[in-house]
Amino acid sequence: MSEVKTKNIQDDSATKPKVADGLDDIQLGARRKGAKDSCVIKSHTYVDSDGANDVNQLFPIVHEFAWEHYRNTCKNSWFPYDVGMVRDIAQWPTLTEDERGILERTLGFLSTADSLVANNLVLGMYKNITSPECRLFLLRQAFEEAVHMESYSYIVQSLGLDEAKIFNMYREIKSMADKANWSVKFTRVLSDPEFATGTLENDQKLLRDLIAFYLVFEGIFFYVGFVQVLSMGRRNLMPGACEQIQYIFRDESLHLNFGVDLVNQIIKECPELWTDAFQAEVREIIKEGVALEYAYAEDTMPNPVLGLNKDMFKDYLQYIGNRRLKQVGLEEEWPGAKNPFPWMSELIDLKKEKNFFETRVTEYQTGSALDWDED
Ligand SMILES: [Fe+2]
Ligand SMILES: [Fe+2]
């Protein structure tokens, strides 16, 4: 970014920070957008005096990673009602109480968790992200969160579960409420009508929210439930529910990968945000996420079931926590932590799993093969 365009808003006391959110009057005659006229947090380093940083103009693409992730999500379109639930309905009464509990609790957390993610995205994140291609991904992600909510409801209704019990579970089970409460405070900061990027402090608040939601909420808080339910699929139990959870797991992996790239792009564009103190805070955020998810594992799985036990989740969550730290360039917190569920990363690639659940073969991917990062 050239010196001419750069302006430090903090030095201009007469100017209140303003997000370049696309709601200004249209500037007739503003110059055309150039290949470098875009930042993820625009107001921090760039004041749009000539109208070039227009969030309404997608091309030329500046943040290629966002465009690629958007295109990849579009290749993975799927719809819950295309997945049959007949075998699940027949199997449900034959499951043990512990097995039924695993699916119910996963549905209980995830059905409301996707709403919390959508709230953060729509009410907090969107207006503050000023890269049009990143916004495009957020729009697609919002749609996918809606599909996920529909999917959980479809499973609940197909199995004739107690809807009030499932959907209110995050307000009845402490470990679920703790995870939800932990996340809401980040959204609350950004959804404040007075909040605007443009200061070091506020830009760090946005970055903190992105790390909390992408790396922890979508990158840690879903994983115990995913492992538990997908373990059922490995035993040919509840194939319809597992097929949908597998699609959701794949979607969430893409959301996570986008979030990691987004965070790293912001660090690249605004290196002054990535202070030693902030890095230490990020480490604490990841550690809190691991601790909360392990508490959820302990709370929801008091007995070993489906070959799983609490200790395996401790290892797994530390392994995941290490990965999240490394994905933003930080040192591991738990050196040597091993992944007891290596099959999880294989499950993301549906092409390897066509006969896995012995359900009908459904290949939703419509484009060329996807290149998945192991998450
Ligand atoms: Fe989701
Ligand atoms: Fe998501």
Q: What does this entry show, briefly?
A:
The protein has 13 helices and no strands. The chain is mostly helical and 375 residues long.
- CA-to-CA gap between the ends? 32 Å
Radius of gyration (CA) equals 22 Å
Just give the CATH class: Mainly Alpha
* Heteromolecules bound: fe (ii) ion
Count of discrete alpha- or pi-helical segments spanning 4 or more residues: 13
CATH architecture: Orthogonal Bundle
| Main sheet properties | none
Shape by Cα distribution:
globular
CATH topology: Ribonucleotide Reductase, subunit A
Helix coverage percent: 55-70%
What class, by secondary structure content?
mainly alpha
Question: What is the H level of CATH, i.e. the homologous superfamily?
Answer: Ribonucleotide Reductase, subunit A
Number of domains: 1
Describe this structure in words.
This protein has 375 residues and is mainly α. It has a single domain (9-353), classed as Ribonucleotide Reductase, subunit A, CATH 1.10.620. The chain has helices at 42-45, 64-74, 86-91, 97-125, 132-158, 163-167, 174-191, 200-217, 223-234, 239-269, 276-300, 310-327, 343-348. Helix 2 (64-74) runs antiparallel to helix 10 (239-269) and helix 7 (174-191) packs antiparallel against helix 11. The longest helix has 31 residues, at 239-269. The structure holds fe (ii) ion (2 copies).
Structural descriptors:
single chain, 375 residues, Ribonucleotide Reductase, subunit A, 56% helix, disordered N terminus, disordered C terminus, binds fe (ii) ion
